[in-house]
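Protocol step 4 of 5: obtain the predicted structure for the target chain.
Materials: sequence only (see below). No template structures provided, no constraints applied. The aim of this step is simply to have a reference model before the mutagenesis design in step 5. Sequence pasted as it appears in the construct record:
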Amino acid sequence: MRQAAFFLCCMLLLLSPGVRGGENESTNEVEEIFFEADESEFSLDGDNFIKKFTGHVCARTKGMEIISDKALYNRDRGYTILTGHAVLRDSIRTIQADTIEYLTHSRTATARGGVLISESNRSLAASFVRYFRDKRSFLARGDTVRLIDREEN
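Step 4 output (structure tokens):
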């Protein structure tokens, strides 16, 4: 019976136009997140529906995409953990890191490990960055945080 329910959940998810993430706190709209990958796997962890993606993973929401080697998505808790050459891009900046965790409810990304943020002709390097998408701001910390200004030629 449990396998049949799991199969039914998987089929409904595959037939739906997108995977619902969470509610945007500022507008109360439900943010949809879509995934593409070479391989995917679905499982249940208690009552939580878990999706694992591997190979050329791309997670997209309105105005943002995150690419990586692997991803773990928990639909019920509204988070995605992307690992291996993770890159977040939106309209104003690019964030590269070893790992990026994205929370759909708060529209917040947390980047860890060799983080590099690029925008216009500036870059910032740190070991930890929290990016607040709605505010277009971020918090960086680590043993060494460097701001790099690139001169235009």
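Step 4 remarks: The first helix runs from residue 2 to 15. The radius of gyration is 17 Å.
Proceed to step 5.
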